[in-house]
Design goal:
CATH topology: Sufe protein. Chain: A
Largest sheet: 3 strands, antiparallel
Length: 160
Amino acid sequence: MYTDKVLKYFHKPRNLGKIKNADGIGKVGNLACGDMMYLYIKVENIKGKEVITNVKFQTFGCVAAIATSSAITEMVKGKTIEEALKVTNDEIIESLDGLPPIKIHCSVLATEALAEAIYDYLKKSNKPTPKDLEKKHESIVRHNEELEERYEEWMENQKE
């Protein structure tokens, strides 16, 4: 079901943990499957470019969620903000030698966690936010609000 690489990243995740005083924090989740990802970034200005010098994650979820979180941290460490924003879920899947179709949403969550961490960094730093990133952030916020509403409705129905 899972490739050797996915299992390797699951059993020995890279960049696991939290960055104290992170420059940006991305938090995303999928209520349907229960996965929750936090991605922390540290950004430094190197030769006039904003570079992700450290990145860590905390993921509560399945094998694929942990593996994709770990993979994206390795993919973006040392990249500029612009380069990191170009990482796609397909590239994550490819870096892991594939994911089962039912687990592809985990790679999407990983890219969303990164986008949210970068968005958070740019907002905290009072830096301009690219329009594509602003749209992605708005979509993630809407999605999270919808999920929260569904969860609250479900909880109310459980009381009856």
